[in-house]
Amino acid sequence: MQAIPNVDFSPQIPEPTTSGSTLLIVDDEERIRTAYRQLLAAEGRKIEDCGSGSEALRRLERRDVDLLILDLNLPDIHGLEIMEWMVTKHIATAVVVFSGDESIDSAIRALRHGALEFVRKHGSPQELIDTVDRVLHRCRIEREHALMTVRLENSERLHRFLVEQSPDIIYTLDKKGHFIFVNGRVHGLLGYTREELLGKHYSTIVHPDDQEHARFAFNERRIGDRASTNVEIRLQTKTHRVRHFENRTIVAILSAQGLYAAAHDGPATRHFMGTSGVARDITDRKKAEETIAFQAFHDLLTGLPNRVLFKDRLAVALTQARRKGKRLGVMFIDIDRFKLVNDTYGHHEGDELLKSFAQRARSCLRSGDTLARQGGDEFTVLLPDLTSGEDAAVIAAKVLAEVKRPFRIAGLDFFTTVSIGISLFPDSGETPETLLRNADIAMYQIKGRGKNGYLQYAPEMHSGHSMRITLESDLRAALEGGDQFELHYQPQIRFSQGLTIGMEALIRWRHPQHGLMAPDTFIPLAEETGLIVALSDWVLDRALGQLAVWRRQGFTSLQLAINLSPKDFERNDLPERLVGRLAAHAIPADAIDIEITENLLMKEAEKNIDIVKQLRGCGLRVAIDDFGTRYSSLNYLRRFPINSIKIDQSFVRDLNPQNQSSTAIIHAISCIAHSFGLRVLAEGVETEAQRKLLSTLDCDDMQGFLFSRPLAAAEFEDFLTAGAFPSREGPRVC
Fold first, then answer.
1. Model confidence over 587-643: pLDDT tens digits?
2. What angle do CA 730, 732, 733 make, to 5 degrees?
3. Which residues contact 591 (CB under 8 A, 6 or more apart)?
């Protein structure tokens, strides 16, 4: 039970300012309530008490309690719930929480629920007395203030106060349009004192271009619903120091009506006395509207028109071009290697590059041309009034030349290029959508040809573009089913021993319309669209399942080579994915050769080195495919923990006794690889002469049509069972 404070409970006489109030004490202990009644007794005070929350709710419903002294921990209802109930019931009783819970959280919760004060029971009794006096005094002041406000609203004094303190200019004109009254707001808005304007004509403050428009509002004779309202007029300031708008003006909306006085010959006759009105400053609103309108149609980073405004201008330009029989052009521009800036230096530096490019590109255009930002690093240009398509090519060449100068990024010179697609009206289309689409198609064509150039749209581009979109859709559908894909296996031979040591798994797509498709027709599309990871998962599951079958048949020494895309290495779970699938098919890790492309060595080398180390740590073997075709990466052989390299077929194809350069290259690669303890395999072996030369170059492991084309699983099984190579008289043709 809460201890009663050790104090003198003799009645204390409060200040007169706290008399005439009703207090309700709510506490579950009677002795404490009795103590509080004695402690807070004062002349004119009516003090009541309750022992439970439900009693308090019934008492508060009468809405005549001025102050509630509330304990939070009641037996039936928590004090916070009582305060929440008071809020929902709109009971305006002030609340002081007097609680034995001394935690700061309890005090914070009480104050957040509407308590004016929080007093701890273990504190000084005088603190409670002072708190109650202070709260009652505050309540009385608030009531008096409210009453005073009501009285002021009905007084002439309040009327004059409102006029003078109004944020608007309030004025009265005589019959000739001269000011006979104007409030002080005119000084804050226009810089004139009221004395300077009294007796002056209203035209003194009206912008010269709006004089005729203002004449009707400032000379308004109508009243009621027919009077002028919300007439937009520019008002002219007295000095530059007041406002800093162009032409020293503000924009105001004016409402006015006529003033009349009753004539001596009867109330039916009225004499026109002048006009009264209110002018409200809406300059900030107008500027905000202009800002919003600008943002709706412009790119905030570069200040250029956005795609919405560009299409609108293009539609207008097309209408004019049809009427005048003129040509126009649309350019679609993409900044090459822009992602490299964002990834290397951050988005801030990327934004700076976009702004710098926008400035340079704009300097290459004519005054009537429009440069717009479509989004990201893509820009469009509208070229009206062209004489021929060569005019657009000239401008594109200017843009290419302009971006040859380095951009300053993060304190360094950054060199970039752009790819530009051009479409012409009426040759390439007659609608904004068609022209933009065809310029975009042409831009992607130039990107596919190596970037850094421009290209005009030709109809044959559209068919290739449409086929790509269709092929992407078909590829997604094929991945969902999986039954359109096939795996073929090409043997890998160790000739000196007459052994098939392994095979490379090669995917084929049996397309419903296009027939059997080789990987080079759809793998790049899968990598570009992000579908390559799902495709790799399909290959892994199917190839490992087939290898498990062959191992059960006794072919336990076979090495299975599986190609992985650089996209697979972007996922941190690659080692876990591979190990999980190996376990599912009961395949030992060292039976698998993971083939990676050579350019993976150069892209995010440190990260990829770590992933390769994880793969090797799991027992997997790693090979570099198409070695020697992309970068001089021999230095990476000592850093990447790989097992073998595959000499690209382009070197093998040129291999003959008369071609000393190819022979020297393969010999050098083989010697260096063997010095690192790596296995060397030559791919693309098609002739017996190539086979013999490779054997002399210390390259005994081979793969190619000389031994076998890629075979379906059943055919490969027959190849293994036969135990001998096919004819070596010439290459096998697919």
1. 999 999 999 877 666 666 677 788 888 888 899 999 888 776 654 455 666 677 888
2. 125
3. 547, 551, 558, 559, 560
**Beta strand residue intervals within 662-706, DSSP E:** 679-683, 701-703
Backbone angles phi, psi at 515, to 5 degrees: 80, -155
Amino acid symbol at 205: I
Q: What SS3 class is residue 28?
A: coil
The candidate with the shortest Cα–Cα distance to 591, out of 603, 599, 583, 601, is 583
| Distance, CA of 198 to CA of 385 (rounded, Å) | 58
582 with 543: CB under 8 angstroms? no
Residue with tokens 């990107």: 447
**pTM assigned to the model:** 0.46
pLDDT tens for 362-414 read 999 998 999 999 988 999 999 999 988 788 999 999 999 999 898 888 888 88
Q: What are phi and psi of 592, to 5 degrees?
A: -115, 130
Question: CA-to-CA distance for 480 and 484, rounded, in angstroms?
Answer: 10
3-state SS, residue 34: helix
Pull the structure tokens for residue 611.
């992933």
Give the phi and the psi of residue 431 in degrees, each rounded to 5: -125, 155
Burial degree of 434 (CB within 10 A; 0-12, 13-18, 19+): middle
| Tokens matching residue 509 | 């797509």
- The candidate with the shortest Cα–Cα distance to 86, out of 108, 67, 106, is 67
The pairing of strands 592-597 and 621-627 is parallel
In which residue are the tokens 């799902």 written?
A: 534
Q: Residue 43: pLDDT band by 50, 70, 90 thresholds?
A: confident
Q: Which of 662, 724, 666 lies closest to 695, judged by CA?
A: 666
Q: Which one, of 411, 437, 412, 432, lies nearest residue 422 by Cα?
A: 437
From the list 176, 243, 178, 230, the residue with the least C-alpha distance to 204 is 178
Q: Which of 509, 527, 526 is nearest to 518 (CA)?
A: 509
Radius of gyration of the chain, Cα coordinates, nearest whole angstrom = 44
Extract the tokens encoding 290. 């202009």
Count of H helices and E strands in the chain? 25, 27
Query: In angstroms, rounded to a whole number, what is the distance separating the alpha carbons of residues 239 and 206?
Result: 14
**Tokens (6 digits) for 706:** 């000389």
Q: Residue 268: which H helix or E strand, with range?
A: strand 266-281
d(CA 253, CA 230): 5
Distance CA 386, CA 356 (A): 27
Beta-carbon contacts of 372 under 8 Å, excluding residues fewer than 6 positions away, are 299, 304, 305, 306, 307, 309, 310, 379, 380, 381, 382
Q: What are phi and psi of 693, to 5 degrees?
A: -65, -40
In single-letter form, the type of residue at position 434 comes to T
Helix (H) or strand (E) holding 173: strand 169-174
Query: What is the rounded (10 degree) CA torsion for 355, 356, 359, 365?
Result: -110
Maximum Cα interatomic distance, the chain, rounded to a whole number of Å? 135
H/E stretch holding 421: strand 418-425
Give the mean pLDDT of 199-213.
89
What's the token pair of residue 237? 């300031």
Here the tokens at position 129 are 């007395």
Structural domains in the chain? 16-153 (3.40.50.2300), 158-288 (3.30.450.20), 301-457 (3.30.70.270), 473-722 (3.20.20.450)
Cα torsion angle, 635, 637, 640, 646, sign: positive
CA–chain centroid gap for 171, Å, is 50
